[in-house]
Amino acid sequence: MTIRTVLFDFSGTLFRIESARSWLRAVLREHGSPLSADELDRCARRLEAAGALPGGAHPQRIPGHLAELWAVRDTDTDRHRAAYTGLAREVPLPDEALYDALYDRHMTPAAWSPYADAAEVLRGLRERDVGVGVVSNIGWDLRPVFRAHGLDDLVDTYTLSFEHGVQKPDARLFRTACEGLGRDPREVLMVGDDRRADGGAAELGCAVHFVDHLPVDERPAGLLPVLGLVDRRPAP
């Protein structure tokens, strides 16, 4: 079948979260809690290793008391906040209020940057009359990020795990996205950076294409192959 709809993951696929250092520095500045440059670097490294920045590095170790919560973090807003602030609290910071402030910061459009070719690919799909959906494991509404970066008009539907109580790789989330766009899964391409989570779409019969989860400046054209996959016609 011809690909008539493309589903995209959010973090690490269309957008990339800021660095742990930038994240921490912005919050410290806003809250008037300065650290020396060495302390800032040390805390940022520890937060990154803890996996406390949503969309950033995975935890090197999940504390036992957070393991059960971590497994279902993307099914509910409260669970998502509790999981990530719990990881952040593994790192001592000068003010208890900073843990929630860090979580709040990561939900702001300023914390996210679209990959350089994201707009080009989304516009190219629109020009080809190909439907576009976003399917994300997430605990908050990412639509304002797309609006702030001028990409919301290029997305037809959003299927977010916390809104459905189901997280990838559960095929039910992908089925919901396909139904929302009125497409047979065999006409759908799922694009993501996580082989386990995003690969769950294959269970429905969707084609799957993976990109590398890299910093924005290290992946200038990782999404461009998607246009070629859509243009490709099935063998007669």
UniProtKB/TrEMBL annotation:
Classification via Pfam families: Hydrolase
One Gene Ontology term of the molecular function aspect: hydrolase activity
UniProt xrefs under Gene3D superfamilies: HAD superfamily/HAD-like
Keywords: Hydrolase
Entry-linked InterPro entries: HAD-like_sf, HAD-SF_hydro_IA, HAD_sf
Name by which UniProt lists this protein: Hydrolase
UniProt organism field: Streptomyces pristinaespiralis (strain ATCC 25486 / DSM 40338 / CBS 914.69 / JCM 4507 / KCC S-0507 / NBRC 13074 / NRRL 2958 / 5647)
